[in-house]
Amino acid sequence: MSDEKYAVVCRGLRHAFGSAVAVDDIDLDVVEGEIFGLLGPNGAGKTTTIRLITTLLPAGAGMVEVFGLDVASHRMAVRRTIGYLPQQLSADGSLTGRENVELFARLFDVPRGERRERVREVLAAVGLEEAAERRAQTYSGGMIRRLELAQALISSPRLLILDEPTIGLDPVARDGVWERIQEVRRATGMTVLVTTHYMDEADQYCNRIALMHRGRIRALGTPDELKSGLEPGATLEEVFRAYTGDQLEESGDFRDARRTRRTASRLG
Amino acid sequence: MTHAAPAVPPAGSADVPPAWTTWRLLPARVVAMCIVELQKIRHDRTELYTRAIQPALWLLIFGETFSRLRAIPTGKVPYLDYLAPGILAQSTLFIAIFYGIQIIWDRDAGVLAKLLVTPTPRAALITGKAFAAGTRALTQAVAILVLSAILGVTLTLNPLRWLGVIVIVMLGTAFFSCLSMTIAGLAMSRDRLMGIGQAITMPLFFGSNALYPVDLMPTWLRVISHVNPLSYEVDALRHLLIGTPGHLLLDFGVLVVAAAAGITAASALLGRLVR
């Protein structure tokens, strides 16, 4: 089970909020170095899965390993391998870009002597060097996302976990965020686990995709495998509909809607 | 678009530093949170000024009036001198008791989840937040003490006593901010926390020795004052700042135990907020 070539291994993973089963008996392997997409509509259980992997929630049943470390028993060690970008806009608007990243450098124990240089490097890597001394509340939505990416990268994570990284962004900003993710990944070989409900993004950037619906994984494979498995010329959206028999838009509860809209309005 | 190639070191270069055992994590996290608090205050001083208005009114109006009335027997100590440490404690109480709102805001904004995916144990995060509140309270304390000095309150010149004041303000604020974060973990919403905060602040304040000596209180209020950590904070501050007889060791002990209990309770409830 602790095979070195897997960044994430989930077996029989389950979590319920009261009587609502959010993640229902999931088996999942994320190979080291790949960009793995977790796709599904709001409320499919993507975020809960992420929270189980990132140590934020205890598994109701089953287990998760990150780089061979059991998440339940090696919480701190697992966290040192992870860079995490939550769905909401989580940068602190009252601090400058540099201060935002410095905080995470301290929280990840980047040695004092290297801190300044490391912060400068990651800010440069996301193209925010010039805006570093401005407070984040003056940033555009795309810049804030890239700042949050810098926060997640400061610890040189082996696994970057992105929860809806481009939600509420315009197409140009979306491309900007993905470009940075791609560049850093090429330079470092880190693994990327991303949730999204934008099918075009998943198609373009992910090596492999798991389609998630109502807490379960309905299909898994490369975008091409999934599409050609349905019929020649099929789109991912059609694949998704075929597996779930559902519309993408018409799901998710009040809490999901509120969270998504809040993110969007803070961006606007 | 041309820019520097991402000079991010190879993934995995920041593996577990073996020396970072939990006991070294705690001071590191506390320092990190306090630095952030100071940076925030530096960027926006509005709150510092607006929060100074209320204590100023207490000292100027309540303090000056009651000094003239001589209604409250404070021995040889002028009433304004007696009042100043009480108002200082009150002011830090007000800062601390609503500090939990920040953690609910952090929860809603995804910041809390992000902080908890760093190698920071829950207790270390809460301790960091508690002392960050203490840091904010200290900046407020400076304003109140300067005003007190201007109004003619005779404050100590002994640097050791000033050090003691810093420690006591930190501990008192740590306790009350943990109380607030504990309530946040139970109430789960800003509105409810505001309501509860409003409801308990005044009883805590009036049920303490901040305005009048314990001897003047009816028995039932004396009991409340005895279990109220604010009374111990005021007693220590009064002793340190204006030299009235106090029970410094007891005060310090009570505040340390209270802060530790507060940190424990708030850490235990933190999980509810991230769920």
TrEMBL record, chain A:
Main location as per UniProt: membrane
GO CC, alphabetical: plasma membrane
Range of residues in the leader sequence: none
Gene Ontology MF, one: ATP hydrolysis activity
Location of the protein in the cell: Cell membrane
Keywords from the UniProt entry: Antibiotic resistance, ATP-binding, Nucleotide-binding, Transport
InterPro entries in the cross-refs: AAA+_ATPase (IPR003593), ABC_transporter-like_ATP-bd (IPR003439), ABC_transporter-like_CS (IPR017871), ABC_transporter_ATP-binding (IPR050763), P-loop_NTPase (IPR027417)
Record's bilayer topology term: Peripheral membrane protein
Membrane-spanning segments: none
Domain ABC transporter: 8-239
Biological process terms in GO annotation: response to antibiotic
Family: Belongs to the ABC transporter superfamily.
PANTHER family linked to this entry: ABC TRANSPORTER ATP-BINDING PROTEIN, ABC TRANSPORTER ATP-BINDING PROTEIN NATA
Protein name stated in the entry: ABC transporter ATP-binding protein
Phylogenetic lineage: Bacteria, Bacillati, Actinomycetota, Actinomycetes, Streptosporangiales
TrEMBL record, chain B:
GO cellular component: ATP-binding cassette (ABC) transporter complex
Subcellular location: Cell membrane; Membrane
GO terms for MF: ABC-type transporter activity
Coiled coil regions in record: none
Origin superkingdom: Bacteria
Keywords: Antibiotic resistance, Cell membrane, Membrane, Transmembrane, Transmembrane helix, Transport
Keyword Transmembrane: yes
Signal peptide residues on this chain, from the entry's feature table: none
Location, primary (coarse class): membrane
Entry membrane topology: Multi-pass membrane protein
Every ABC transmembrane type-2 domain range: 46-273
Membrane-crossing segments per the record: 87-105, 137-157, 163-186, 193-212, 248-270
GO biological process: response to antibiotic
Family label: Belongs to the ABC-2 integral membrane protein family.
PANTHER family: NODULATION PROTEIN J (PTHR43229:SF2)
Annotated protein name in UniProt: Transport permease protein
Taxonomic source organism: Actinoallomurus iriomotensis
